[in-house]
């Protein structure tokens, strides 16, 4: 593969690190005090309640609504873990699949909000490209530790 400046594996690492920084920004910009007090889950609950697909509302009511504080921590710290894992390149394939799943959940929840969809679709696409491009081959702890070779 011919590329300008970096090789293909390095460009894959650039994508992976950029995606990790995006996840870290998702975590950083949250108002943690409001989020952990139930603000984020309450907001999502309002969206799920009026969702055009009844399965989303039922799923939210069964899985998230009974545990709002726990789910607030799960979502926030999943974003932090994804960001750190992708930037450092640690357990990268797991982080990429986890990020893809989280973006797909966000995509389904926010299906009516096209402004939000661009971000989720781009992050999901980068996750897929970074996964199938094996972006952990360079500039990663996975490579240094001989994981996923």
Automatic annotation (TrEMBL):
It holds the Pfam family DoxX. Keywords: Membrane, Transmembrane, Transmembrane helix. It is a multi-pass membrane protein. It comes from the Bacteria. GO terms for cellular component: membrane. It is found in: Membrane. InterPro entries: DoxX. Its main location: membrane. The chain crosses the membrane at residues 94-114, 121-139. This is DoxX family protein.
């Amino acid at each position: 593969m011919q590329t300008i400046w970096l090789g293909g594996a390095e460009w894959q690492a650039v994508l992976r690190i950029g995606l990790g920084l995006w996840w870290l920004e998702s975590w950083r910009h949250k108002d943690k005090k409001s989020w952990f007090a139930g603000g984020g889950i309450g907001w999502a609950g309002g969206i799920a309640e009026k969702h055009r697909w009844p399965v989303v509302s039922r799923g939210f009511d069964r899985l998230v609504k009974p545990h709002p504080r726990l789910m607030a921590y799960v979502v926030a710290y999943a974003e932090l873990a994804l960001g750190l894992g992708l930037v450092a390149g640690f357990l990268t394939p797991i982080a990429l699949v986890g990020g893809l799943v989280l973006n797909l959940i966000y995509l389904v929840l926010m299906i009516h909000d096209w402004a939000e969809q661009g971000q989720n679709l781009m992050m999901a696409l980068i996750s897929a490209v970074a996964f199938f491009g094996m972006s952990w081959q360079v500039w990663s702890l996975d490579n240094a530790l001989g994981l996923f070779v």
